[in-house]
Protein: Glycosyltransferase family 15 protein
Organism: Hohenbuehelia grisea
Amino acid sequence: PSTTEKATVNPPSGSSNSSGLVYDRRANATFVILARNTDIDGAVRSIRDIEDRFNRKYRYPYVFLNEVEFDDNFKQRISVLTSAPVEFGVIPHDHWFQPDWIDEDRAKAGREQMEKDRIIYGGSVSYRNMCRFNSGFFFKHPLVQKYRWYWRIEPDVHFHCDINFDPFVFMEDNNKRYAFTITMYEYHATIPTLWSHVKAFTKLHPEHIAQDNALGFMSTDGGDSYNLCHFWSNFEIADMDFWRGPAYQAFFEYLDKQGGFYYERWGDAPVHSIGAALFLSKNQIQFFDEIGYEHNPYTHCPQNKDTWKNSRCSCDPKRSFDYDGYSCMSKWDKFMGK
Ligand code: GDP
Ligand code: MN
């Protein structure tokens, strides 16, 4: 079956590939999926979608991560879905759980207040563990360390269009390091002091700030205040060597020491986004209109008519989140001069 599959595949657009093989050029890349055993049904749906729309032609590997062992049911139900390599890993204890040096009384008071204020996941410790892990640790996992590029997938997401090109190779060829499909405002109540720490960090370490950075997307007063715009990190395609590099490492360690992952409820989305905006040039950040993507309750549907048609999209372009009042897409367009 693999020979017929290869023969019917369209080469990625813009490629001079004449053999019809989509994978004569591959990136050193993997999918990364953080999940609980109870997420199995949603994980199956997500993998079915990405296999159907992209990966049956490309066969990039999958790494599933969990703070406890995946059970046999989880492993079996995932493994039957793909002929790509699949690995299941346990997260090292210190990469997941609340560190000892966090003042638990202060953390608890923060959680109780947020619960009272009805902030989503406000009372949850495990959600905080997850956000800190995604901010600073997933790219250090032994199973992930061998890869440079990753595509983050969550249980219960949807891919609405054929992806007829290799986004990893595209990023490598075009000097991109971080890609998104949806951008929106963060809840201020989850990150009340984050920006003040970001500012303190940039004063201490001006050497890490990129020329031609994307700070102007997030702040219109030269960095004094934050407009809460961030890239929605449940979808990410990015270069882990960027997260592993000196600028982001110093940034994450600085933020982690402030304790805000536990005293407040800092999300990996604003932390990654602010890191990308400060330490990358704005042209290294890629918006993929081509990738139709849904994570409840929002969908990005390609706005380019030819893409929508040629990629057999199942989403309604009129209901794309891009120009919803809560989206930051128009700010991104304006910032990028579009
Ligand atoms: P939301 O998208 O912000 O509503 O948060 P999710 O509940 O979707 O969690 C984000 C990601 O982390 C998903 O891939 C979840 O499966 C995963 N996740 C969340 N909490 C835990 C947890 O306690 N353990 C593990 N192993 N994964 C988790
Ligand atoms: Mn989610």
Notes: Residues 34-36, 39, 66-67, 126-127, 130, 154-155, 234 surround guanosine-5'-diphosphate (ligand 1) (CB under 6 Å).
